[in-house]
Amino acid sequence: MTTPDKSASAAQQFWTLGDYARITELLSDLGQDLVAAAGIRAGQRVLDVGAGTGNATLPAARAGAEVTATDVTPRLMEIGARVAQAENLQIHWVEGDAQALPFDDGEFDVVLSCIGAMFAPDHAVTARELLRVCRPGGRLAMANWPPGGAVGHFFKVLAKHTPPPPSGAHPPAAWGDPKHVARLLGAGCADLVTATRAVTARFDQSPEQLIALYKAHFAPVIAAYAGIAGDAERTAALDADLLAFARAADSGPEGGPNRYVFEYLQVIGSRATR
Fold it and tell me: What is the pLDDT along the chain (274 residues), one digit of tens a residue?
């Protein structure tokens, strides 16, 4: 699965389908865990790439860092900005593409991306940009869905029911493969450590209710159904595949509450000093 087009305008349209904030609320612990793993502290200059509604941006600001958030979709950042205003957090929200970040070389002490930069189509260009804006010796920290985890399986389910990605676009979940990450960051990243971690969704209802939430609010699912609108047979097949995914992902006890645990790859490294 990937955003349908490389252009920023297409990405904006895509990610404003539904209400993505409802989805990020389920996985809010991801951002907090990434900020802790990156060791973010007061006074550091931090950039969150593919910030969305601020899953990592907000906890970084709460830690006292000087935070800039960037995303191709201003409507998502507006949601995070309202939360920041309510908490009196000073955050700079800047529209920008992970493949062409609008910042100077070495401008930040820490560069974060929590399930964000992985969706940019050109992985090599994105990796170079993440390293470029980080100062030598500064920290790079990412959380990415892996191809073999539950979310990777979810992507494969959607891929069965959607057109192939544009030529040259890389699958987002490749960022969850440690070998792919090592190739992308290469000699530009020192002390690279990857670890498989897990996040428990803040959702304890039935698989049917989880899929209903996705159908109402998650852009990739909304787009998949829009692409087969009017075809009852294909719609029923997608319904069945998504429900099978959710039932397989549910690790809660019989009779509830339901429990959904999703693996992700945590990436921590430093920009090489030479």
Answer: 334 344 567 778 888 888 888 999 999 999 999 999 999 999 999 999 999 999 999 999 999 999 999 999 999 999 999 999 999 999 999 999 999 999 999 999 999 999 999 999 999 999 999 999 999 999 999 999 999 999 999 999 999 999 888 777 789 999 999 999 999 999 999 999 999 999 999 999 999 999 999 999 999 999 999 999 999 999 999 999 999 999 999 999 998 899 999 999 999 999 999 7
Measure CA of the first residue to CA of the last residue in the chain; give whole Å.
36
- Euclidean distance between CA atoms 91 and 210, whole angstroms: 32
How many whole angstroms separate alpha carbon 3 and alpha carbon 48? 19
Tokens of 196: 């498989």
From the list 153, 159, 143, the residue with the least C-alpha distance to 2 is 159
Cβ distance 148 to 196 under 8 Å?
no
Q: Which long-range contacts (CB under 8 A, 24 or more apart) does 206-214 make?
A: 206/256, 206/258, 207/243, 207/246, 207/247, 207/249, 207/250, 207/258, 208/243, 208/246, 210/246, 210/258, 210/260, 211/239, 211/242, 211/243, 211/246, 213/22, 213/23, 213/26, 214/23, 214/242
* Domain residue ranges in the chain: 17-150+165-202+263-271
Cα separation, 175 vs 116, whole angstroms: 11
pTM: 0.92
Distances (CA, A) of 148 to 101, 159, 195: 29, 15, 14
How does strand 66-71 pair with strand 91-95?
Answer: parallel
Protein fold of 17-150+165-202+263-271: Rossmann fold (3.40.50)
Amino acid at the residue 133: V
How far apart CA 53 and CA 25 sit, in angstroms, is 9
